[in-house]
Amino acid sequence: MYHTPNLTGLRKKYIPKRINEGWGLQHMKLYGMDDEIIISGANLSEDYFTNRQDRYHVFSSKEITQYFSTIHDTVSKLSFLVTPDQQNPSGYTLEWPSSNLTPSPLLSPEKYINGATKSLTPLLLPLSNSPTSTQSTNTRVYPLAQFTPLLRPDTSTELPLITSLLKTLSLPTFKESSWTFTAGYFNPSPLLSNLLLSTSSDKNVVITASPWANGFYGSKGVSGLLPAAYTLLSRRFLESAAKHTPSRSQAITLKEWRRGTVGEEGGWTYHAKGLWISLPSSPEPSITIVGSSNYTKRSYGLDLEVGTCIVTSDPGLRARLREERDGLQEFASEMKMDDFTKPERRVGIQVRVAMWIVKMVGGAL
């Protein structure tokens, strides 16, 4: 079990366990066997197989599978070993093996980060034969990783790649392109928000979870405030879009995904995340990013994330990417600013205060 070096001392002692993930966690999702691996944002708990929407991409590639296997093995050697313990109320104990690559993050966060940097940095360097190409050479897969809390200096690859892509889309020559961005927990980092707002295209879509499709809907305690918090963040994004591009007020459409209500019969939650980019003169995506990241400040500062960027000119694959993208919008409805003024969408002061407190003590949504 991975433990962030950011949650130690008084923070670890006093921050409630229900929300302490806001200080960083292992967020990677990798499911591999032999020469195949699934890259996803799903945790694979029971609801992912019944009533929780997410994305799953299967890669049949020895090279890609081996790469992420090495990532997995290295992070495992930076983590606690879980051993059964019937004498412990939790049923297990956490041990720090002497064979690990660093001291425990609870004993020496600085030495832990230094050792993690030494172990992880070589894995993020370009390989001599990268990126990985399919046999037809019309599709390339770029592995991505974001290990910011463990790297000094930070040599993570996901945020730099997305930054480069979106800056390219801000050029006038890409005015006829389009993008679709989704995150179940909509709170893109300030940098990413500005990049999305600065693209030159006019047919862009953001998909996020309705409060009634948010995994925290109906939760007790502080976590029950999160659906309203994400509603507030969605509204602020729309406000920023209107201010940023007043002459292109329709350049970005915000849609909320809802399929029933969480906790009721037939109710689903929404957990998909990703980016699809269609280049000029083509409605079908040529680029997509799939992985574990929610693209938040926390994703790029506190969590461990992995994913892939797929670049393709293959007609069949592009058609399937379009089907995936459009399929997510089947249960999504456009939101206007007026929709956020309805009584059921108003955000109380307790939500705003809770968001402020989390930010002040170093956490993030």
Automatic annotation (TrEMBL):
Cite the PLD phosphodiesterase domain residue spans from the record.
Answer: 22-48
- Function noted in UniProt: Functions in the biosynthesis of the anionic phospholipids phosphatidylglycerol and cardiolipin.
The protein here is known as CDP-diacylglycerol--glycerol-3-phosphate 3-phosphatidyltransferase
Q: Which CDD domains does the entry link to?
A: PLDc_PGS1_euk_2 (cd09137)
Matches recorded under PROSITE patterns: PLD
Instruction: List each coiled-coil range.
Output: none
Q: Which UniProt keywords apply?
A: ATP-binding, Lipid biosynthesis, Lipid metabolism, Mitochondrion, Nucleotide-binding, Phospholipid biosynthesis, Phospholipid metabolism, Repeat, Transferase
User: What does the similarity note say?
Assistant: Belongs to the CDP-alcohol phosphatidyltransferase class-II family.
Where is it localised?
Mitochondrion
PANTHER family, from UniProt? CDP-DIACYLGLYCEROL--GLYCEROL-3-PHOSPHATE 3-PHOSPHATIDYLTRANSFERASE, MITOCHONDRIAL, CDP-DIACYLGLYCEROL--SERINE O-PHOSPHATIDYLTRANSFERASE
Domain of life, per lineage: Eukaryota
A GO biological-process term: cardiolipin biosynthetic process
An example molecular function term from Gene Ontology annotations: ATP binding
Listed under GO cellular component are:
mitochondrion
Q: Fetch the SUPFAM superfamilies from UniProt.
A: Phospholipase D/nuclease
Q: Which reaction does it catalyse?
A: a CDP-1,2-diacyl-sn-glycerol + sn-glycerol 3-phosphate = a 1,2-diacyl-sn-glycero-3-phospho-(1'-sn-glycero-3'-phosphate) + CMP + H(+)
The annotated pathway is: Phospholipid metabolism; phosphatidylglycerol biosynthesis; phosphatidylglycerol from CDP-diacylglycerol: step 1/2
Q: What is its EC number?
A: 2.7.8.5
Q: Which InterPro entries match?
A: PGS1, PLipase_D/transphosphatidylase
